[in-house]
Predict the 3D structure of the following.
Amino acid sequence: DAMVIQNPRYQVTQFGKPVTLSCSQTLNHNVMYWYQQKSSQAPKLLFHYYDKDFNNEADTPDNFQSRRPNTSFCFLDIRSPGLGDAAMYLCATSTTGGSGTQYFGPGTRLLVL
Amino acid sequence: QKEVEQNSGPLSVPEGAIASLNCTYSDRGSQSFFWYRQYSGKSPELIMFIYSNGDKEDGRFTAQLNKASQYVSLLIRDSQPSDSATYLCAGYSYNNNDMRFGAGTRLTVKP
């Protein structure tokens, strides 16, 4: 089945220790998104790729970076995680010219100690 | 300024009743609207989307859109305990490929 896959599902890191979260998709969608979601809050868009074009939200901290080496994969790098970065990180995909529907992966729960 | 507003709830309905979830949006550039269901600790899953004024039905779910009032709703008929979750409303603008989510309404269906 076509899907969005995120690894790992749970990530524990130490304060200030870099961490990388990964997302892959078999949907062949050209747009990929990274969201941060904290408890009882709306998913907050960090950035998205339209093909290889990177789009950063204005309020996304510099501590967050992203890479998309090919259509299928996208990575979220947190250079120096702080306690406030503990959250669920959601990857989503969509295709241009369609309804705008975004399909989410299962998410990665990040814990910062 | 929040662009998509939802009542956080919790909304509690008895099993078999109709649950009514509401959402308002401020961006008139939004053209499509989505309802996602999110179970605790899980990722959002799409229930349905709507882009034309009026009603759209899919099984037990009916989405309603009123662009003049900037209002979207989701009705769940014959509510089941398995419908207990947080429901996220989102508005999407094709022009800038921008999806904005509300914070969600928590629904509890009591047996």
Notes: The first strand of chain A starts at residue 4 and ends at 7.
